[in-house]
Amino acid sequence: MKNTIVEIKNALDGISSRLQKIEGQINDLEDRGMASNQAEQVRGKRIMQNKDRLREFRIQDEEKEKGAENLFEETIAENFLYLKKETDTQVQEA
Fold this sequence. Notes:
This protein is an all-alpha fold. 89% of the residues lie in helices and 0% in strands. The model has no long low-confidence stretch (mean pLDDT 83).
C-alpha cells in the first residue's frame, strides 16, 4: 500500500513539474506575441508617417509646378470671390 502511495505521489510530482514547464513556455510565447504586436504597431505608425510625408512632398511639388500665376489666381478665387467675378485680373511679370 505504501509503495502505491509513493508511486502515485511521484507520478503527481512528475506531472506537476511538466505542467510548470508548459506554463513557462506558454508565458514565453505570450511575451513574444506581445512584443511582436508592439513592433507591428510601431511599424504601422512609421508607415503612416512616411505616407503623410510623401503626401506633403507631392503637394509641395504640385505647388511649385503651378507657378506664381496659378497660385495668384487661386488666392484671388479663394479670398476675393466677388473680385474674381467682376474683373479679370492679369499677373504682370516683374
